[in-house]
Each structure stands twice: as structure tokens, then as C-alpha cells.
Write a structure and sequence with these properties.
30% helix, 167 residues, Nuclear Transport Factor 2, Chain: A
């Protein structure tokens, strides 16, 4: 892989992590599943996009709002079509009436299929999850830009968020 091709591949792989975060936060399950190879292994005995969709839907119904912020992303290429990565992520999650901060590291395996980089596997490792003293969801509306403090309008304004919770 020449330098320019490698640079473009790194950018495409980084976009996977960003798209993953946005798809999780907006509950765009179709987009989320599309980021993985079609024969993805889900758990020990399940394979494919249908199994992955069911897994994500079950996991995401256990929590409310999520805010994933992707940070450091290191990518190592094994060859022109295979790579691994380490991705740092800060997360805020609504868990019932509580608000939780997490520091996460993802250990990723990527593969290029039909010219497109996809996740083969994503291992979620946790440094910590910590409860926050004040739940931001209980704040009055911020009415941005009038006020910097208060409740905003997302994720409820995303159409995919609404559809996810209507199903």
C-alpha cells in the first residue's frame, strides 16, 4: 500500500469509529449494522447482520441517552485489506434516573471488502463508569443560545431516535 492509499485508508477507518458513535447516539440501527462485515460474529454462536441488529437493539433499550466522544485512534495495517485499531472514547449515558460517565477503549479489527473498510470485531473495554452528582436530564430547557445551562433538544429531535423508541 503506497503512502497516499494508506492515508486514505486511515481516514476511512477513523470515519467508521465516528459513524459508530453517531449511529449509537441517534439509535440509527441500520447505519450501525452497516458498519460491520456481513458475516460478523455476535457472541459465541450467532453470525450476521440480523443477529447484530438484535444484539444492539437489546443493549440500547437498556439505556437512555448516550453521548460517545471518540478520541485517540491508532491504526495498524497487517496488509492492504486488514487492520487493527485502538480507539479511546468518553461516554455519557442515561441509566434510569442516573447519569454515568465512562472511559472506554475499543480494540477493533477491520477488513476492507469490495473496496470499503468495515468492522470485523469491536471489543469494548472499560476503565471506569462513574455516577454524576446532577442528572442533566432533570434540568429546565436551555433555550440555546439564550442559556448555556439546561436541557437541549437532542437526541429527541433525531428521526432515527424517535423511530427506535416507537418500535
Amino acid at each position: 500500500m503506497d503512502a497516499l492509499t494508506r492515508l486514505a485508508a486511515r481516514d476511512e477507518i477513523r470515519q467508521l469509529a465516528y459513524r459508530y458513535a453517531l449511529a449509537i447516539d441517534s439509535r440509527d440501527i441500520a447505519e450501525l449494522v452497516s458498519l460491520f462485515v456481513d458475516d460478523v460474529q455476535v457472541g459465541r454462536d450467532a453470525f450476521g447482520h440480523a443477529a447484530l441488529r438484535a444484539n444492539f437493539e437489546a443493549q440500547l433499550r437498556e439505556v437512555g441517552i448516550t453521548i460517545l466522544f471518540v478520541g485517540n485512534h491508532l491504526i495498524d495495517f497487517q496488509d492492504d485489506d486488514h487492520a487493527t485499531g485502538v480507539v479511546y472514547c468518553k461516554n455519557e449515558t442515561q441509566m434510569g434516573d442516573e447519569w454515568v460517565h465512562q472511559a472506554i477503549q475499543y480494540r477493533d479489527t477491520y477488513e476492507r471488502r469490495a473496496g470499503t473498510w468495515l468492522f470485523v470485531r469491536r471489543r469494548h473495554l472499560l476503565w471506569y463508569g462513574s455516577r454524576v452528582g446532577e442528572n442533566p436530564l432533570g434540568l429546565p430547557p436551555a433555550a440555546w443560545p439564550k442559556s448555556q445551562v439546561g436541557r437541549g433538544t437532542i437526541p429527541e429531535s433525531w428521526p432515527t431516535w424517535k423511530r427506535f423508541w416507537e418500535d
